[in-house]
Amino acid sequence: MIRRATLLVLSLLIVLVWVFPVAWGLLTSFKTERDVLAYPPQVVFEPTLVNYQDVFVGGASIVPNLVSSLVVSGFTTALTMLFAIPAAYALARLDLPWKRAGGFWVLATQMLPPVGLVIPYFLLLRQVGWTDTYQGLVLVYLTFALPFAIWLLVSYFEEIPREMEEAALLDRAGRLRTLWHVILPQAKGGIAVTIIFVFLNSWNEFLFAVVLGGNTVRPVTVAMFNFISLEQTQWGRLAAAAMVGMAPVIILGLLAQKHIVKGLTVGAVKGGGRR
Amino acid sequence: MPAFARRGERRFALALFLPAFLLLVATTTLPLVYLVWSSTQRMDLSMPWMSGFAGLENYAQLGGDARFWSSLWLTFVYTGATVVLQVAIGLGLALLVLQIRFAQGVLRIGAILPIVLAPVVAGLFWRSLVLAPDFGIMDFITRALGLGSYNWLGDPQLALVSVIAIHTWQWTPFAFLVLLASLAALPPDLYEAARLDRAGPWQRFRHITLPMIRPAIVIVVILRMVTALSAFAAIFAATGGGPGSATEILNLYAYRLSFTELNIGYGSAVATVLLFLTLSVAFLLFALRRAR
């Protein structure tokens, strides 16, 4: 009994550590600058909405940045799914020539260090005038979104019982129609989870956005730095911007909570029944 | 399956796979070829008149560049320390709560938060709210405990400790979740047999649990290595690679060379080194996949 209680307290402490920075950020977002800088740190204070007001409608509004993030992540996700679903199906289920090599190659592209890509893209996009454009950033985001989505989808496609498609094929349904009418409805859950993760990863991206974005396309991850300057940092506003900017991914993360282990180990664990 | 049907399937499979494949070649492989090419160029945006082919000059320069060697060393320290800490803490935690359903539930939900947070926001939160010297919580705690006040991000050694702590904070939940899942999948009768044989808890762990979850540990280690090797945003937000170059792992060094100092040719050479380092880890992963 005592052992159980100790373990419980210990795990609650760990959760506190995990949650603390975000919880403290939430508190800070309701503080005036004076309360933020108070020492010792204040837990009880008079809450104010002035930071949120500023972040939404004030001079430091991050609404345009939220729009940037939404457009870039939305288009990245749509394009990624369009290309990834057929490719993943071929890798998971069909007699694809050089399947092993192709699979490895997709996996390797997923692991590329982003800094190795951002340098050539900086030079290339400048030449075609695509820096600070949506099409430029979406193109670059495909480099991490597409391989990730392919591998995650492969693991879901492998879970679908083979009998389903064999039956459909015997019925002389075309291969494309089988994919569309039999496989896709079966993989609906996996596709939804993949969409969530691709969107989440795109939303959180920073390095490509800071180097290849600009004044027109400035995702919210980059906009946080608006509140930090050499002279002074507006902590309260920064915290409010971070809360607003991270609300979508926190909600998506909680929605996909049960699938998060799979999403994180994508490619490393052979999917489905073969454990 | 008749031969014509097989041929049909192969053609169909290629038709489905090729668009994504070609898109990936165009968006990743070609830029990387361009990166390797630009690493053989003298390309300094602040001195464009100096541009030209340099051969292996940039790589030769790496040999005598103390900042590069220190950055390579920091990459190893950062990767090694974060991976070991994540696996050790994650595994310990998973073992602790394995028997307690309620605690598992709480930790599973709590684990989501660090993982889904953008690394740049994690870095900013830690920098501003936790590690700030005058009003941060860490300072308050150490002072309250009578340990004195520290400049967590301003002192070179503490800064390195801090960025390692931030990375560990963000990604230990990952190790925990994966290891907990694989621990929970172990057959319980194994332990019954061991208990009947009067094996102590340590022996049970050492001789039963550890060998059974070794594959999961290997996966966690490799995936965490890949993440650590591409870490950028959290360090950028917390220290910017400083003070000086105290937290400047290869990613930060290549970034600063290319986009702060505008010496893109040399920055490309550093990024190329990092590229091959990461690819060797990828090969390791694939060898393991194949082995199973």
Describe the 3D structure.
The complex is a heterodimer of chains A (275) and B (292). Chain A has 14 helices and no strands. With 275 residues, chain A is mainly α. Helix content of chain A is 71%, strand content 0%. Chain B is mainly alpha-helical and 292 residues long. Helices cover 76% and strands 1% of the residues of chain B. Chain B has twelve helices and two strands, in the order αββααααααααααα. Chain B has a two-stranded antiparallel ribbon. Chain B is flat, with a radius of gyration of 24 Å. The model of chain B has no long low-confidence stretch (mean pLDDT 88). Chains A and B meet through α1, α4, α5, α6 and α7 of A and α1, α3, α4, α5 and α7 of B.
What is the topological layout?
The complex is a heterodimer of chains A (275) and B (292).
Chain A: H1 2-29, H2 33-36, H3 50-57, H4 63-93, H5 99-110, H6 114-128, H7 134-157, H8 162-170, H9 175-186, H10 188-204, H11 207-212, H12 220-223, H13 235-255, H14 260-264
Helix pairs in contact in A: 1-13, 3-13, 4-7, 4-10, 5-7, 7-10, 8-9, 10-13
Chain B: H1 3-38, E1 41-42, E2 52-53, H2 57-63, H3 66-97, H4 101-116, H5 119-130, H6 137-144, H7 156-184, H8 189-196, H9 201-229, H10 233-238, H11 250-260, H12 264-291
Antiparallel strand pairs in B: 1-2
Biggest interface and residues each: A-B, 96 and 96 residues
Backbone shape of chain A: globular
User: How many separate helices of chain B?
Assistant: 12
CA(first)-CA(last) distance of chain A: 36 Å
Percent helix of chain B, as a range, is: over 70%
| SS elements, strand count of chain A | 0
Radius of gyration of chain A: 23 Å
Produce a short descriptive summary:
Chain A has helices at 2-29, 33-36, 50-57, 63-93, 99-110, 114-128, 134-157, 162-170, 175-186, 188-204, 207-212, 220-223, 235-255, 260-264.
